[in-house]
Amino acid sequence: xxxxxRRPTAAELAMYSVMWSEHCSYKSSKVHLSQFGEKVTDKMxxxxxxxxxxxxxxxxxxxxxxxxxxxxxxxxxxxxxPYQGAxxxxxxxxxxxxSMGARPVAVMDPLRFGAIDHPDTARxxxxxxxxxxxxxxxxxxxNIGGELVFDSVYQGNPLVNALAVGVMxxxxxxxxxxxxxxxxxxxxxxxxxxxxxxxxxxxxSESFDADKPSKRPAVQVxxxxxxxxxxxxxxxxxxxxxxxxxxxxxxxxISCATSELASNGDGGMHVELTNVLLRDxxxxxxxxxxSESQERMMAVVTPENVEAFxxxxxxxxxxxSWLGEVxxxxxxxIDWAGETIVDVDPKTVAHEGPVYHRPFHRPxxxxxxxxxxxxxxxxxxxxxxxxxxxxxxxxxNMCDKSWVTNQFDRYVQGNTALAMxxxxxxxxxxxxxxxxxxISTDANGRYAYLDPYEGARLALxxxxxxxxxxxxxxxxxxxxxxxxxPEDPEVMWQFAEAVRGLADGCRELGIPxxxxxxxxxxxxxxxxxxxxxxxxVLGVFDDVARRTPSGWREDGQAIYLMGVTRDELDxxxxxxxxxxxxxRPPAVDLKTEKLLxxxxxxxxxxxxxxxxxxxxxxxxxxxxxxxxxxFGVGARIGLDEACERDGVDLFTMLFSESQSRxxxxxxxxxEVRFKDMCGARGYAHMRIGVVDTEIEALDFxxxxxxxxxxxxxxxxxxxxxHFG
Amino acid sequence: MTxxxxxxxxxxHAEANLQDVDAVIxxxxxxxxxxxxxxxxARFAPLMDKVVDASKAGMPVLGICNGFQILTExxxxxxxxxxxxxxxxxxxxxxxxxxxxxxxWTSAYAKDSGMVIPLKNQDGQYVxxxxxxxxxxxxxxxxxxxxxxxPNGSRRNIAGISNAAGNVVGLMPHPEHAVEAGFxxxxxxxxxxxxxxxxxxxxxxxxxxxxxxxxxxxxPFPQIPPPARRSSASTRSSTPPPHRxxxxxxxxxx
Amino acid sequence: MPRIxxxxxxxxxxxxxQGKAIAGALPRLGLTGFTGVRQxxxxxxxxxxxxxxxxxxxxxxxxxxxxxxxxxxxxTRVEVLPEA
Lengths: 724, 254, 84
Hints:
Largest sheet of chain A: 7 strands, mixed
Oligomer: heterotrimer
Number of helices of chain B: 5
Order of helices and strands of chain B: EHEHEEEEHEEEEEHHE
Distance between the termini of chain A: 57 Å
Mean pLDDT of chain B: 82
Mean pLDDT of chain A: 92
Largest interface: A-B, 50 and 38 residues
Structural class of chain A: alpha+beta
Strand content of chain B: 15-25%
Strand content of chain A: 15-25%
Low-confidence stretches of chain B: 216-254
Shape of chain B: globular
Low-confidence stretches of chain A: 208-216
Radius of gyration of chain A: 26 Å
Helix content of chain B: 10-25%
Strand order of the largest sheet of chain A: 8-10-7-11-9-12-13
Structural class of chain B: alpha/beta
CATH architecture of the largest domain in chain A: 2-Layer Sandwich
Largest sheet of chain B: 8 strands, mixed
Shape of chain A: globular
CATH class of the largest domain in chain A: Alpha Beta
Helix content of chain A: 25-40%
């Protein structure tokens, strides 16, 4: 009322309420997120063409190419209706990419579910996995990676994050702004129905109450064929240069699109809402403004280009309606059947929403938690360590994920150079030069629970390491911050710490956050999920032909362990398997991490290594197992010297989750060069074995031999056993 | 197609114009979302009438995945595809046998040679009545058969078939995803290859060029040699490992 | 043996991409007499013996719980089929 100087109309009230919701306005998180901008140096911005604030950030990858990528959450809708929730999550992030002017080229999905054996988990896994596949496969977008984590903290609140990446030439970058008085505003794509009215604001801004499942807005249903047509149609619009500004319709629908377009441009827009094509004619103006019907876009077109625009719509058989025009009044005016129902300053809707300085404090239990270090009996002796290794590789979080990933198309478009189960997904951008990008997403909720600041840096470190392990030079970061209720000061502290950690970490590594998403209220009843900052890192390849796979296959190649191993089992998968969560997460020094990344990229560029795998969850035990199973080739491994150097026993060497480590396979002829390179940079490296194509086992010399058949059976059996 | 030495021309579904092309490939995808039945709506595209006429005049036509489904809906090929017997979308590298190398699209292969190419679909289970299946078998029109495991419950392990003349061929797996070294499967029917170096599908596209050059008559073409290993490895003159049965994860071997 | 038929339709307010695609295709075949298409599902539950009120009630429960998703679909019919 203070803003308008009068009583707001029902439509204005609807618009402000949805745009000022947590989901759209970032009112609780804004004060913290500003660090991503403040802690960026000019050097970090070197490759940044478009930064935070637009639909997605854009990074220069050279040769005139640019890449845009972003990760977003669709957690709450996916719990209510798993298939459609997950499907529309993919659709939404893909439209963000299109609206930057880019052709989407790949998607990834970090997923987190409750306990694998909980009765509700199968429902969610089946629905969400087939929803992602059903939408992404139909769109013809390769799915090149992601995560799959099971933990009871996500039982009533699964995390369904979706990442999309798109490519464009520099000159094709489009922004969401409406400028040029007299230019026409057009809505095109699907018709507007009652989908998800109040969805973003209601669902994503409230936690679930187990006793009252009735609060369900109309579920958004995705139509991947309509989206595919929309993608091709938009790309043709861009190519023909007939749109001045463009904005996808996601959360808060037309309210969001009109106010953001108007406030980013010259500041005025006049729209006749009765022109909106409706699927459900009974919708009220307020509902039309808030509808979250999928597969819609809004664009600004100069009067001269109206005809060209309409021709392209006709070719693709896409419906459109002219809603109004850009004005110089500085007001967003929306009429309904001749009556003005909205007359506001668009900036007050889109950008000048409330900013909360929510109270936060470190939980009292945090000290006690961090003091509770892993003190269970550790497996000792060859048989016990072997058994532990098999258990680890069969565990829900470490087992083979192909039950999920085989439901996604990784081949389509013919440019996938690396996908699951390798460390990062790699996509070729330029078919002539081989220029391409690598992407990885990572998070560890347990680490972040033990220490949110370090947890965020650890997620960043792992994602960075994965990209470098594939051979790409890391360039930029997108994040999806999944947390509990901001109204809980302890959750707010976790959030503040994680943002601080991520911003500091990005500065240390010299790569900027280009955009992302915050998802709050992830909790069931009063219990919040583990703080889960999902970090996506994008890297660039001069030629994707040199990417490094995560498994060895050449007989006789030397296996090297890079980095040192400390006794760091707190928060580890091993501790998790034994029901323990306490202590402090592994220490991470990002300078060391950066150096490791440089060495891995150099080794790839100079053809020194034919396989590489980063060490993260599950430590060396998991890395060696995965490297052997990748192509079904065994190795002889000797760890005694490394144990002695690092002062740890065999079990700790295999199961500790110390950071800044990787295993690589080096061709015999390259060993001297490789050792010289590591030596010159002072990076710890030790030869721990040799690839052996004959033995079909991981033979830990002097300790035990693990036949690959036995390992494979343990590794591959878990998901099919639970999900069919 | 370009890799095989041909020129690709994009055709628009709504235009009843084949632009004087010599052969047509109907690709995979999810035409009209596959919402009614896979291929059921696309088969009424104006372009399809022209394809049907041209195929009757002998033009080579290949349907891959959704393209195969469209060819069956258009009655150029018998039978139909239903949902996979495991009910899920599945994307995995698949071993096939080329049982008929006399079609316009398979002349580059030796009879019964193997082929590893990606199979990825939701509705890939080939079904037809027994009489039709017997007819297909009897006339040698089962062009491709799944080897080892049957990935989707297809009748008689059928992966692809042809019309009686051999110019129209449809198959569910995707040869076009095994034509470029580095972007294909990790395996080949010839044994071990480098990462993504499986190019077993290329012969499909060289076959049709050969048969067009030979004036519509297919003639045997030398089998494509196994692709070179990754260059960095080969320049190091490492001895190739002895041939082993590949055990790559995700590959549907027996 | 008697059968119970259950029809399930997408809720009127929910987008039905299937129906929309078909509705778009019909005019291209010259079939212009329709303004919309909604695509639903039909289930046939075979009963061993008579259809007692209890069995019919079970069918209604099945329809409301397993056969339909109340978030996006309505059960529009649960009926005993006349024996052929």
